[in-house]
Amino acid sequence: MSAHKKSDLKKVTTHQLQEMKNRGEKIAMLTAYDFSMARIIDGAGVDIILVGDSASNVMAGNETTLPITLDQMIYHASSVVKAVKRALVVVDIPFGYYQGSSGEALRSSIRIMKESGAHAVKLEGGSEVKDSVLRILSAGVPVMGHLGLTPQSIYKFGTYTVRAKEKEEAKKLIEDALLLQECGCFGIVLEKIPAELAKKVSSQLRIPTIGIGAGPDADGQVLVMQDMLGITKDFKPRFLRRYADLHSVITGAVNKYVSDVKGNEFPSQDEKY
Ligand code: KIV
């Protein structure tokens, strides 16, 4: 049975996310990239669905998020939007489609909103992307920020280890978070930073923070769906809690199907016309 009665099915808005923070209600966010999975996780009550550029890893099999294109993100996002009845759908602007200029950032955001029907965009970075954030917001498109470990800059960092452990980087992260809030972002993802820093940022900000590997004091949490469902097997960071072992479930089901077909046990008399 769905987690929501029909009467509860009010669409989540950025305004409601702010109210959730104000009343201390945590925000649950997950990624999705296709119609079938988006339908399930929306029905199960997630507040925000992120069409993340992690699609580059978990859907396309790339090592990083860098190769995914804007057209591919729009394809994933439009499939998700068709499935979603309640959650707010946020779409990552992929690498190479906003860093050039604020005009490029605006054009990419407009394509995402127009062609997929999504509700908001997300982009990585702080002061470096200020002009882009302002330009996108000026067109009426809600923007979510992303600080800490920003996977589109992986070749600058060199590793996926915890960010902002040093004083200087932590100070810049707080300044960037305040700047993104001042610009008008409706929320900020904090990825892989010390829990104490996430707590400090979340208490200083009026807008909600959504943590991934950022401890329990962010205003919400996000995980990549394939990781939390145990579809991916070898990715085991400390922050990841697996809520299912779909890798084993799917493997078992497919093993059984193969043996049934080969043993002439499928289809049965009842499964034919
Ligand atoms: O692309 C993504 O899935 C993300 C989350 C990890 C926050 O940006």
Instruction: Domain count, please report it.
Output: 2
Question: What fold name stands as the CATH topology of the largest domain?
Answer: TIM Barrel
- Overall spatial form: globular
- Compressed to H and E, one letter per element, the order equals HEHEHHEHEHEHHEHEEHH
- The share of residues in extended strands comes to 5-15%
Based on the structure given, which CATH architecture of the largest domain is correct? Alpha-Beta Barrel
Give the termini separation.
Answer: 31 Å
Number of strands: 8
Query: Which CATH first-tier class of the largest domain would you pick?
Result: Alpha Beta
The structural class is: alpha/beta
Please, what is the CATH homologous superfamily of the largest domain?
Answer: Phosphoenolpyruvate-binding domains
Can you list the ligands bound to this structure? 3-methyl-2-oxobutanoic acid
Taking pLDDT < 50 over at least 5 consecutive residues as the criterion, the unreliable ranges are none
Major beta-sheet overview: 8 strands, parallel, barrel
Helix residue percentage: 40-55%
If you compute it from the alpha carbons, what radius of gyration comes out, rounded to the nearest whole angstrom?
20 Å
Mean pLDDT: 96
Strand neighbour order, sheet with most strands = 1-2-3-4-5-6-7-8
What this model shows, in words?
The protein is an alpha/beta fold. The protein folds into 2 domains: 237 residues, Phosphoenolpyruvate-binding domains (TIM Barrel); 28 residues. Helix content is 41%, strand content 13%. The protein contains 11 helices and 8 strands. It has an 8-stranded parallel barrel, surrounded by 7 helices. Strand 3, helix 5 and strand 4 form a beta-alpha-beta unit. Helix 2 crosses helix 4 and helix 4 runs parallel beside helix 5. It is globular, with a radius of gyration of 20 Å. The relative contact order is 0.11. The model has no long low-confidence stretch (mean pLDDT 96). The chain binds 3-methyl-2-oxobutanoic acid (KIV). 3-methyl-2-oxobutanoic acid binds next to strand 6.
